[in-house]
Amino acid sequence: MNTPLYKALIQHARRNSHSFHVPGHHNGDVFFDDAKSIFNPLLTIDVTELAGLDDLHHPTGVIKEAQELVSQLYGSAESFFLVNGTTVGNLAMILSVCEPGDTILVQRNCHKSVFHAVDLAGAEPVYLAPDIDAALHVPTHVPLDTIKEALAAYPDAKGLVLTNPTYYGHSADLTEIISEAHRYGIPVLVDEAHGAHFVLGEPFPVSALKMGADIVVQSAHKTLPAMTMGSYLHLNSSCRIDRDRVAEYLTRLQSSSPSYPIMASLDIARAYVEHIIEEQKLSDILQRIQSLKQTFDSLTNAEAVKPADPRIITDPLKLTIRSKRGHSGYTLQNILERVNIFTELADENQVLLVLPLGGKRRINVETIKSIDEEIEKMPPDQMFVSAEWGAQPVTVLPYQKKVLQTFKKEYVDFDEAAGRLNADDIIPYPPGIPMIMAGERMTKESVQKLSRLISMKTHVQGNMKIKEKQLLVYIEEEKS
Ligand SMILES: Cc1ncc(COP(=O)(O)O)c(C=O)c1O
């Protein structure tokens, strides 16, 4: 296992040194005994920038080496370790390309961190509506025609931000889209949070890095064996973005005490991918995944669902299951939890499972089969409603952000909200895609959908009164 950072940490831990430095657990010595057995092995490598352990914010030693190994594997010009997830990568890449007032083209079904970045940059977003898949009723990718329309209307945009694959593992061919943006000299920034394993090649979809995107961020922790918050940011060799700006923003946005266990796990995750390739482990892993899928498929009362759009390639690590007896995804998720199966997310129609890239634990086939019985016990509650993003493929907010800031706000009941300007990001979580954003106008349909989600007890991030069916809206007639 070629893991320079992890190795240096282990060597340091073996010295059994006297710690007169942070963190305050002093190599695990200062810790409640009750919790020690769980935390202790990790605390021995939870150190700080000691001699030989390099510095994430100015890497010249083992962190630099570990990052270079990532870059070699992914074929990037340069790769960075992130200790605050793809969230911080999205923030840094967007802040690196735009200044206040600049226009940026953004796929509307991006993760909230993308929109937060646009806000922090003070940029003006142009939203690009995604297609909705007819089988899964979830948003997928932005069609090429929409991209062309947006580029023609906003040729001075500072960037095009896309998400590929989606949370559901739906991946599109971005090659034409990327070259179209590049024709305008516009860099393409891709949130590939769910695609760190695409580097393994077929049958996984192609990474945006290979398709020519300028900058790509991946949550190693989502599909590779890395600790939560561990992500990679890659710059492509022909990157149209200033490398030093990206590095500077990462330094500003990430902790000055980055977690060594997280960084070490990023080193190990890369080695794990290399191990799969070198030892030709992929076919065994895929076989296991296939047999797991077959078991779910053999259920009488539930089925695996695939996208209707034949252009979409679904990541083999994702499995979407739907009840055949008219249950919402939320109810199906509850049913699965009763038999001790915990899933990644549920929506109105289905649940999403993230399958493991290897590992040893096997699930008993009987456990999966028992779902059939549990489904029969539950009354149906599914309403089968399709997602939608409105009629216009390319939209801007009714008011610029700086104008919005001048409006007063008030709470209104859901039944009075249609037609009003929403003043709060409303985000079902997961997947963390804002359903209605601050500055967007509420429609009858969006309020109805929100009302449905609340009554289904979906976890929705937003203002504190949302559960009381009240929404925060701007008063367009009144300046604060
Ligand atoms: C598409 C997408 N982008 C970004 C993120 C944020 O990633 P992280 O949790 O690594 O910060 C998520 C999280 O779920 C996501 O689904």
Automatic annotation (TrEMBL):
<dbReference type="InterPro" id="IPR015424">
    <property type="entry name" value="PyrdxlP-dep_Trfase"/>
</dbReference>
<feature type="domain" description="Orn/Lys/Arg decarboxylase C-terminal">
    <location>
        <begin position="408"/>
        <end position="451"/>
    </location>
</feature>
<comment type="similarity">
    <text>Belongs to the Orn/Lys/Arg decarboxylase class-I family.</text>
</comment>
<dbReference type="GO" id="GO:0016831">
    <property type="term" value="F:carboxy-lyase activity"/>
</dbReference>
<keyword id="KW-0456">Lyase</keyword>
<dbReference type="InterPro" id="IPR052357">
    <property type="entry name" value="Orn_Lys_Arg_decarboxylase-I"/>
</dbReference>
<dbReference type="Pfam" id="PF03711">
    <property type="entry name" value="OKR_DC_1_C"/>
</dbReference>
<dbReference type="Pfam" id="PF01276">
    <property type="entry name" value="OKR_DC_1"/>
</dbReference>
<feature type="domain" description="Orn/Lys/Arg decarboxylases family 1 pyridoxal-P attachment site">
    <location>
        <begin position="3"/>
        <end position="362"/>
    </location>
</feature>
<keyword id="KW-0210">Decarboxylase</keyword>
<dbReference type="InterPro" id="IPR000310">
    <property type="entry name" value="Orn/Lys/Arg_deCO2ase_major_dom"/>
</dbReference>
<keyword id="KW-0663">Pyridoxal phosphate</keyword>
<dbReference type="InterPro" id="IPR015421">
    <property type="entry name" value="PyrdxlP-dep_Trfase_major"/>
</dbReference>
<protein>
    <submittedName>
        <fullName>Protein YaaO</fullName>
    </submittedName>
</protein>
<dbReference type="InterPro" id="IPR036633">
    <property type="entry name" value="Prn/Lys/Arg_de-COase_C_sf"/>
</dbReference>
<dbReference type="InterPro" id="IPR008286">
    <property type="entry name" value="Prn/Lys/Arg_de-COase_C"/>
</dbReference>
